[in-house]
Sequence to fold (661 residues):
Amino acid sequence: MKSLRARLLLAASVVLTGFVALCGLSLEQAFEDSALNAEEDELHGIVYALLGSADPTPDGQLTIRNAELPDARLVRPQSGLEAAVLDQNGDVVWSSPSAGDDLPDLKPAEVGAWHFHHSPDRFLLTYGVRWVDPPQRYTVMVIEDSKTFRDQVGVYRRTLWAWLVGISVALLIAQFLVLRWGLSPLRRLVAELRGIESGGQASVQSAYPDELTPLTGALNAMIVAERNQQTRYRNALGDLAHSLKTPLAVMRGLEGRLTNPDNQRALADQVARMQHIVDYQLRRAAAAGSRTLSEPVAVAPLAEKVVSALSKVYAARKLAFDLRVPASLKVRADEGDLYELVGNLLDNACKWAKSRIALSIEEAPRRLTLTVDDDGPGFPEDVESLATRGVRADSQVPGQGIGLSTIAELLKAYNGTMQLARSPLGGAQVRIDLPT
Amino acid sequence: MRVLVVEDDPSLREQIASFLGEEGFVVEKAADGEQGLYMASEYPLDLAVLDLGLPKASGIEIIKRTRKAGKSYPILILTARDGWQSKVEGLEAGADDYLVKPFHREELLARARALLRRSGGWATATLESGPIVLDTTSKSVKVDGNAVELTSYEYRVLEYLLTHAGKVISKTELTEHLYSDDAERDSNVIEVFIRRLRAKLDPEATLNPIATLRGAGYRWDLPRA
Fold:
């Protein structure tokens, strides 16, 4: 069960169904009991009325005149209500005009004893009396067809269940709406987290119910901590680079002071090797990679800054930059990495370009494409093989390859790809695809 | 040319200073950001070489405040943080070029010279004006294709005047930019150098490349090529 809402709805439905079912059954039972009691009471009444109207016949038996029958149904044949009086031998001494021939054979009842009996299709009440004149024991018997009763109970049952089902449905709908409303802050939080993930926003911002506030607070704290961690890490790397490279710069400066050319070459080789190791390892470590919680970085201003910096550095070359970056484009990546990527791509293009360089950045769903074109000599040979060979060569021997090793290292951290081609401008084209 | 070197590592600072000194620059040295900031805004400079990671005040801070104070001489930043972010930050603050540590001395020299040329409005490593050609890389001077032998100080005066061709340069400015503090500052010496330069570059006195403006100073008067 993955969804919280599904869980709550399922639980609510089970509880509700159980409750409604038990409720329905007990109501049904109660109604049937009370209807049965009413039936018995009615039959009692008829028995008493019959006894009240009974007269002795000349031949020493009991009879009841039709005119004195307490219920009109006793007169009408097949009305469903029948009555009879039996003597102590169980013989019928009187029966109502409504009675058929199929009166049940009964043992005479004890004097003063009531017997109520109901079978699926009829109710039977018997009462034993001792008559003073003629001195006889009689049994009065009333039979009522239970069809009316069954109809009544049936109607009740149908009404009852119709209402209960209706109420259940209404309650489930209410429950659904309540859940929707109750869980809406969670949905909002999820949407905000997605926004943070996609780079649309920097932190969880809107107000949440008291129960969620500790959670959102903790999330924001975590995001900030993660970012600070990245910054600290980067600064530490910067310090490390500084403390390693300054002595290297001194050693490199000493090269010129050595008079023996062999020593000079040996020192130069070693310094170059150390520098390469330091560069390579620091670069690898510095590539932060795609971080879920990175603050979204606006790309256009970043690219413009790099271009204006490069225009300064290559001022003498009078290069024309054509920048096509959507102004609103924000990318969830480490800012330093983006600087590295754009800086190295453009710097490389600047080194080779005659006069024109174009950078375009496009955003597709879950993908970012950077294309850098120049009008320089282009890549010298089969670009496919150069892509890997050039990068590999450069990452091992500084000054060789095509100057894209930092980019290659970054692309590893971001699972990006690089393609080299001939540019429409006539020179080289480097295309970078980054999953976002 | 007077260069400020701000670098907190003593050995690297001394190395750059002595190297630039050998190449004919007048070098000022600062060991931290505070000292660097003072020198950068108070001294008559032609170029500053700044480390970015400095104690007391960062290189970025120095660049910003120097530019704010209206100084326009070129600034070359030295950075160990070869990240583009810090390069861009430095260049955005007002630096003109960067050099990543460790670097070859020749690379530093080439960048420094290129910046100096650029600040004077020259695009190439050779400054050509009339029949006079000054090669900043080999530090040689030719007139009509014939090499002219100059002393180190003569060369510096010529390079300064030619770099700022068309601008009036006072004697004080020349001494400030060509002599270190401890050197003798006698404006008569400048007059001597100018006279010798005129004699060497223009023995027939037909070109008159250097004009003397009474009470104001000197000006390179030949058009730039």
